[in-house]
Write a structure and sequence with these properties.
With 156 residues, this protein is an alpha+beta fold. It has a single domain, classed as Hotdog Thioesterase (Thiol Ester Dehydrase, Chain A). It is built from two helices and eight strands; from the N terminus they run E-E-E-H-E-E-E-E-E-H. The strands form two sheets. The protein has a six-stranded antiparallel sheet, with helices on one face. A two-stranded antiparallel ribbon has the order 3-5.
Length: 156
């Protein structure tokens, strides 16, 4: 199975219009590459384009796709994660323009069970130029966090 063939709604808990990832492109051993095209109906579109700082949300959603892919392979639904912090954010442009296709890569850099860190990069598809890079720290609730341990009741 290829991630390109899976509808985004089965991989990412976000729904339009906040879902900004169009599709998964490739699964890497420890990460994912996703695609997004800037359209005229983008919720953050300004006369100058989509501000480059929105790349943080693109990268966070790519992390969600990475988690969603692994959950999908195990017959589970996508879930919400939480962006805890961003380090080393570097923006190499002011905005993304309508028609531009972005490749968003997220690679797991550190796994502390529920707290994870990803090295992320947003590139322009046409030029392969790095438009934004960052280290994102995310919290992914485990089962204990989701149901308060109710799944353990009656088990010793």
């Amino acid at each position: 199975m290829n991630i390109c063939d899976v509808p985004m709604g089965l991989l990412l808990a976000h729904q339009p219009p906040i879902r900004m990832i169009d599709r998964g492109m490739a699964v890497l051993g420890n990460g994912v590459i996703c695609e997004s095209q800037i359209r005229t109906d983008h919720m953050f579109l300004t006369p100058a384009g989509v501000p480059a700082y929105v790349a943080v949300e693109y990268m966070a959603q790519a992390i969600g796709v990475f988690d969603g892919w692994h959950r999908y392979l195990h017959g589970q639904s996508p879930r919400i994660g939480y962006l805890v912090g961003t380090r080393e954010l570097k923006l190499n442009c002011d905005s993304f323009v309508v028609g531009q296709v972005l490749d968003i890569e997220a690679r797991l850099a550190w796994d502390g069970n529920s707290l994870l860190q990803f090295r992320c990069c947003t590139r322009d598809r046409a030029t392969n130029a790095e438009l934004a890079t960052a280290m994102l720290n995310v919290y992914s609730p485990g089962q204990m966090d989701v149901d308060g341990g109710a799944h353990l009741e009656g088990k010793e």
